[in-house]
């Protein structure tokens, strides 16, 4: 007796990219570029500032940007006004101009002790790698966009908690100010732990820096809303 070939029964699962925009992301707007640049300058993060400015000027792919060498942008002890890089994908040279602000930020980064004896422009502290990886660069970019409130949707698996979006309701300018203000507060708490309150120190110890600043901004927004609706003055929480 022949057994008929029955169709395989499969569980109906929604596609992982259903309802989500995949592929190349939209470029940053000029106001976003300005805010990120100012934040990096205030934090005196010379490496990230030089990396961000070079990424904006060169428009290189991440795989080519992380492999930039010091000789590609420097000649006779000075930063070049124009540079040429060979693309790893197409094997074609790409020329780009380096703006004055980028040259200044790269010069400051070249004076850092981490750059002593380094062949690549973006070295790492671990000797087994010569430069930062594309995965590290992706995390750095995510930190940049998260710091100004443009948190992308994070898809994770393995039972881990998934990150949602920051709400887009309300005034964007106020939301951006809250993020910037809480980042300054978090930096102060990280550099001067003795001046940090218990809740801020706890959330900075449990969560990544950018997630902690977003959580602090959300809490501040709720506190401000409660003060406005109940018409009460701010009361310092009991430790």
Quick tags:
single chain; mainly alpha; hpI Integrase, Chain A; globular
Short overview:
The protein is 46% helix and 6% strand.
Please characterize this protein's 3D structure.
With 239 residues, this protein is mostly helical. The protein folds into two domains: 30-147, hpI Integrase, Chain A (Orthogonal Bundle); 172-230, no CATH class. The protein is built from nine helices and four strands. The chain has a two-stranded antiparallel sheet with strand order 1-2. Strands 3-4 form a two-stranded antiparallel ribbon. A hairpin with a 6-residue loop joins strand 3 and strand 4 (93-97). GO terms for molecular function: DNA binding; transposase activity. Pfam families: Transposase_20. It comes from Yoonia maritima.
Number of helices: 9
Largest sheet: 2 strands, antiparallel
Strand order of the largest sheet: 1-2
Number of β-strand runs: 4
- Under the CATH scheme, which class of the largest domain? Mainly Alpha
**CATH topology of the largest domain, which one?**
hpI Integrase, Chain A
Helix content: 40-55%
Strand content: 5-15%
Task: Outline the fold blueprint.
Blueprint: H1 30-42, H2 46-58, H3 62-65, H4 70-73, E1 74-75, E2 78-79, E3 82-86, E4 93-97, H5 100-110, H6 134-147, H7 172-191, H8 198-206, H9 209-230
Antiparallel strand pairs: 1-2, 3-4
Helix pairs in contact: 2-5, 7-9, 8-9
């Amino acid at each position: 007796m022949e057994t008929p070939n029955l169709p395989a029964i499969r569980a109906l699962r929604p596609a992982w990219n259903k309802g989500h925009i995949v592929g190349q992301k939209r470029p940053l707007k000029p106001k976003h570029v300005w805010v990120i640049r100012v934040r990096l300058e205030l934090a005196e993060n010379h490496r990230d500032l030089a990396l961000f400015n070079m990424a904006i000027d060169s428009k290189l792919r991440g795989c080519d940007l992380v492999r930039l060498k010091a000789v590609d942008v420097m000649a006779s002890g000075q930063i070049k006004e124009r540079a040429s890089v060979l693309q790893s994908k197409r094997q074609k040279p790409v020329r780009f101009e380096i703006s004055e602000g980028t040259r200044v930020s790269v010069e400051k980064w070249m004076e850092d002790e981490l750059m002593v004896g380094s062949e690549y422009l973006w070295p790492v502290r671990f000797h087994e790698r010569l430069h930062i990886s594309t995965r590290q660069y992706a995390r750095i970019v995510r930190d940049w966009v998260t710091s100004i409130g443009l948190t992308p949707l994070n898809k994770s698996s393995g039972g881990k908690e998934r990150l949602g979006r920051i709400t887009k309701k309300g005034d964007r300018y106020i939301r951006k100010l809250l993020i910037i203000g809480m980042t300054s507060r978090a930096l102060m708490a990280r550099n001067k732990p003795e001046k940090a309150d218990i809740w801020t120190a706890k959330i900075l110890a449990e969560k990544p820096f950018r997630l902690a600043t977003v959580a602090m901004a959300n809490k501040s927004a709720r506190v401000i809303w409660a003060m406005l609706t109940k018409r009460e003055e701010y009361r310092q929480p009991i430790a």
